[in-house]
Write a structure and sequence with these properties.
Blueprint (H helix, E strand, L loop, with lengths): L1 E2 L7 E2 L4 E2 L8 E2 L2 E2 L3 E5 L5 H12 L5 E4 L5 H12 L3 E4 L9 E4 L7 E4 L4 H11 L3 E7 L10 H9 L3 E3 L8 E6 L5 E5 L6 H9 L7 E5 L7 H12 L5 E5 L2 E4 L8 E3 L8 H10 L1 E6 L12 H4 L6 E5 L2 E5 L14 E3 L7 H9 L5 E4 L11 H11 L3 E4 L3 E5 L6 E3 L5 H13 L3 E3 L12 H6 L17
Parallel strand pairs: 6-19, 7-18, 10-11, 14-15, 22-23, 26-27
Antiparallel strand pairs: 1-5, 2-3, 4-27, 7-9, 8-9, 11-13, 12-13, 15-17, 16-17, 19-21, 20-21, 23-25, 24-25
Helix pairs in contact: 1-2, 1-3, 1-6, 3-5, 5-6, 7-11, 9-11
């Protein structure tokens, strides 16, 4: 059972702002009072939705995306592709929003792209815009201007695209497309984000010579996201080879139109599955794919490290947390390398903060360049609640200490908000500064957290107005 002292369901999933009264303060995280028996439906994967949107806009005919994510990140991607000439219309309604029908158009410049805080938009759209004819300007939220972009900017220049960033290596910048990109050989350092690789690979079939891309840095984070990009390309008939680690060859050619069903976002399932370990009982996520390239699939092997029992049956994944933290279970400390699943780190670190033994979460140094510096943010917020977290060169060391309530800052970061919600299950009085930041990838989070964990399978209030 959950007790919720406050919730604010009436916000626009596309803007993360209230649709009614102005924001009236922090969201007091619900505290668990007993074991869960929850079944949760999670909206579509952001990573898959935005990759399929890009490929649909570059395809040789109309595509349909079924059960896509409708969130701020996906809305920004839709608007960016529309600005460049794609036609994107709403189709059949679904439980979390309508299908999307994408009809490619001639790529045109003379556009401005609002990246918001979406890494996929700021890193996937510039190579697409380079194929348009005319100028395209890019900017985003203030926080987005601190995210690394130099690799994208430098790679486009190497490919012969005119880019003006006044030497910042970051937003805002503009480019001037000539209607085509020759492609060919390219070396980059993608140590800061796998999205630099994915953005180039997605547009590469439309380059005159395709692309032979090599990563020259020592570290390449989030390889599963690159594997996801390669799989989506192959499913559309594009030839992609990887002759060596950190090397990819994309053949030039057409991108097939496709009718594709988007998988649930398994990374967004992380806080819900983690809740079983904190509150006790079981949480089942419906629609869990048997095979997937999503990094969220790693939860099935990560959560047992904390003592969970994980089972998969009939297209669903269930986590049993026994009595849970609030029932007296003492979670063991863990030593984990999350270099392939860094976006799961906030949820894992939140569990580690509630464990009885020390933990080390490594392989996540690149998270300093995400929506915020997640390592510094997690360390600061857990420490402010009485915990002890030390930053490492590529991760965090967490020492067990009793936690108390207090204000949990979000830093405009959706995964920081959900990490605070996890801790709040066991620690009374945790106030999440701005729960609406979850609109970036999961606008229904507050409703699912306070509703689905009570036994409902969809939001108590439908923020898309489709129920």
């Amino acid at each position: 059972m959950l007790i919720s002292k406050y919730s604010n369901p009436d916000f626009d999933p596309y803007q993360g702002e209230s649709l009614g009264e102005p924001d009236d303060g922090p969201w007091i995280a619900p505290t668990a009072t007993g074991p869960l028996a929850a079944r949760v439906s999670i909206p579509g994967s952001k990573s898959l939705t935005n990759r399929e949107l890009v490929l649909s806009a570059l395809a040789d005919g109309p595509s349909v995306l079924r059960r896509p994510l409708h969130s701020r990140d996906s809305a920004l991607m839709v608007e960016a592709l529309r600005a460049l000439g794609a036609q994107i219309d709403e189709g059949e309604p679904g439980p979390f929003g309508p299908d999307l029908q994408v009809t490619p158009g001639e790529l045109e410049g003379g556009a401005s792209v609002d990246c918001g805080l979406a890494g996929t938009v700021m890193r996937f759209i510039p190579p697409v815009a380079a194929l348009a004819l005319g100028p395209v300007a890019f900017d985003g939220d203030e926080s987005a201007r601190r995210r690394p972009m130099r690799t994208t900017i430098d790679s486009l220049r190497t490919l012969g695209v005119e880019v003006n960033d006044d030497g910042r290596g970051a937003l805002p910048f503009s480019l001037y497309g000539t209607g085509s990109v020759e492609g060919g050989e390219l070396e980059i350092d993608a140590s800061a984000s796998s999205q630099f690789v994915s953005g180039l690979l997605l547009a590469a079939p439309r380059f005159s010579r395709g692309l032979h891309l090599r990563h020259r840095g020592e570290h390449l984070p989030s390889m599963p996201h690159i594997e996801m990009t390669i799989e989506t390309l192959r499913q559309r008939g594009v030839r992609v080879d990887s002759p060596a680690e950190g090397e990819w060859i994309v053949a030039p050619g057409s991108i097939a139109a496709r009718d594709v069903a988007i998988e649930p976002d398994l990374s967004n399932a992380a806080p819900f599955l983690a809740a079983a370990l904190v509150a006790g009982g079981t949480v089942t996520v419906e629609g869990w794919p048997a095979t997937t390239t999503q990094v969220g699939a790693h939860l099935a092997r990560l959560l047992p490290r904390f003592g969970a029992s994980v089972t998969s049956a009939e297209g669903a994944l269930t986590v049993d947390g026994g009595a849970g933290v609030i029932g007296g279970i003492r979670l063991p400390g863990v030593d984990l390398d999350l270099s392939e699943g860094g976006e799961l780190a906030p949820a894992i670190v939140a569990l580690a903060a509630l464990a009885e033994g020390p933990s080390r979460i490594t392989g996540i140094g690149h998270l300093r360049g995400h929506e915020t510096d997640r390592l510094a943010a997690l360390a600061a917020e857990i420490t402010a609640l009485g915990g002890s977290v030390t930053e490492l060169a590529d991760g965090l060391a967490i020492e067990p200490r009793p936690l108390h309530g207090g204000l949990w800052h979000c830093y405009e970061d959706h995964r920081m908000a959900t990490a605070g919600a996890i801790i709040g299950l066991a620690v009374e009085g945790v106030e999440v500064e701005d729960i609406t930041v979850t609109s970036k990838t999961l606008p229904q989070f507050a409703e699912l957290w306070t509703g689905a964990l009570l036994g409902r399978t969809r939001p108590a209030v439908d923020p898309l107005g489709l129920m």
